[in-house]
Design goal:
Transcriptional Co-activator pc4, Chain A, 9 helices, binds zinc ion
Amino acid sequence: MEAAHRDILRKNYSGLVQAIQPVQEVVDKLLQFKVLTCLMKAEIIEKPQTSFDRELETDKTELQDPRCHIDLGNDVFVTAKMWNDELNIHVRKYDVYPSGRSYPTKRGIVLSLKHWLELSGVHFKLQEAIDQGRTHDYAHVGANMYATLDPNGGVDLRQWEKYEHLGRVVPTAKGILLSKQQWQKPRDCCDVMTDFVPELKEMVPCMGQEDHQNQIGYLMCSFCNPNSDHKAVNNVPRVQSDFFQKGRHA
Ligand SMILES: [Zn+2]
């Protein structure tokens, strides 16, 4: 594809792509051919009223009684709940009806307790980047979940996965783009979450574990180095290069 054609597609990406169904497949293809950047994909699947959104059924697991339901603003909530004997923490957008009842949407992400433990460190790292005036940065939460700085000050918290044929990680639909204000609140949630989830008190972040005190231990860890190529250092710039592609707001 010629650069000029790619530019035309990019300028119109949002409307064009949303008109096509199913959105997920189309954006994956456009990503593969480098018409869209990873963040453009995230933006498309975050937009309400796409066919991606309409296809979603309420996730039954979301209807379980949560241990907590913390409001991040704009109908996004942090909830801790059990499902299949597993306790996870969800950051999720809810549809709120005029009756006052709210229903979880699929726009969100499930964090294991292991992921949750990393969140305050991730928050700190991104805040440092913001304080230094950087508008593009990211932090690895664990197991290919990334928190990516949005140029508008928000943060995209999303599961990525390695595409072997592309040789790099790409974002999946599992995630949520939080506004600047919403992103500030999970930091506060980290402080209170142990009240709701005392299990967290017994846990230490992955990097704090004894077998991570040498580099081999870290490289062998599927959470810290999920793509198991034992070249964590080489893997990161591949993510980064995508974030630096221009044209997201063209
Ligand atoms: Zn680890």
